[in-house]
Amino acid sequence: MNILLWGVLPYVMFVVLVGGLIWRYRYDQFGWTTRSSQLYESRLLRIGSPIFHFGLLAVIAGHFFGLVIPKSWTEAVGMSEGLYHFNALLVGSIAGVGTLGGIIILIYRRRKTGPVFMATTNNDKLMYVVLVAAIIFGLWTTVASVFSNTHGITYRDTVSPWFRSLFILQPDIASMAAAPLAFHMHTLVGMALFTIWPFTRLVHAFTAPLHYLFRPYIVYRSRDKGASVPARSGWSEVGTRDRDTRKR
């Protein structure tokens, strides 16, 4: 069972994730969207969405720091295990509670706003269940890491080596098998989330609008001659006012 869960299932998840993204991009580009419902309700969305997304970014950063950075590296820069786990508990708890609070607001909004609820598919409902479960199990592991640390077993000695070993195609099954139950549950739910990811609205996370950073300025021009706004210093005017007048 350990071989199946920690040696085979991660690669199955990866194949489905990558294959699903390729399939979705090739055959469902018009569906590659969040299906925004801001027109139906915006007040709760303005509150819940930033809390959820900023909390999620902090959670992702925490996972990267905890899973990718080896213990020897943090010890080399003078960070003790006690200080590391204190920071992980403090920051992880704040990020996890924020993420959970944000998603609860968004789910409440989706359930209580008629048009938004009508636009909610069974696919969306499944996604919310798995996503909330992943967040809750993540908070559980944050608390459990404190108690497991008192017994000399931490996720940096079990989950982290297993995670890094996956990338060299030599999964350290024994390390993951020795991890506490909370980490097993969180990892399994996390893999389930990434497995369904390409087939849900979460797919928009893989589309970063980087072109907005490099696009040229958009020039706006009023038809009313008296409402023209002087060009800012350093900007080049497009056309002339006389030419625009002749066109009218």
Elements, N to C (H/E): HHHHHHHHHH
Compute the gyration radius: what is it? 24 Å
Q: Please report the total strand number as a whole number.
A: 0
What is the CATH-assigned architecture?
Answer: Up-down Bundle
Topology-level CATH name:
Fumarate Reductase Cytochrome B subunit
| Number of continuous helical runs | 10
How many domain units? 1
Structural class: mainly alpha
- CATH level-1 class: Mainly Alpha
| Cα-to-Cα separation, first versus last residue | 77 Å
Mean pLDDT across the residues is 83
Share in β-strands: under 5%
Provide the CATH superfamily. Transmembrane di-heme cytochromes, Chain C
Oligomer: single chain
Query: Major sheet, described briefly?
Result: none
The proportion of residues forming helix, as a percent range, comes to 55-70%
**Residue ranges: pLDDT <50 for 5 or more in a row?**
242-248
What best-fitting shape do the alpha-carbon axes yield? globular
Characterization of this structure:
By secondary structure, the chain is an all-alpha fold. The chain has one domain (2-213): Fumarate Reductase Cytochrome B subunit. Helix content is 65%, strand content 0%. It has helices at residues 2-27, 43-68, 71-76, 81-112, 114-118, 122-150, 159-166, 173-177, 181-196, 241-247.
Describe the protein's topology:
Blueprint: H1 2-27, H2 43-68, H3 71-76, H4 81-112, H5 114-118, H6 122-150, H7 159-166, H8 173-177, H9 181-196, H10 241-247
Helix pairs in contact: 1-9, 2-4, 4-6, 6-9
Question: How would you describe this structure in keywords?
Answer:
mainly alpha; 248 residues; Fumarate Reductase Cytochrome B subunit; globular; 65% helix; disordered C terminus; single chain; 10 helices
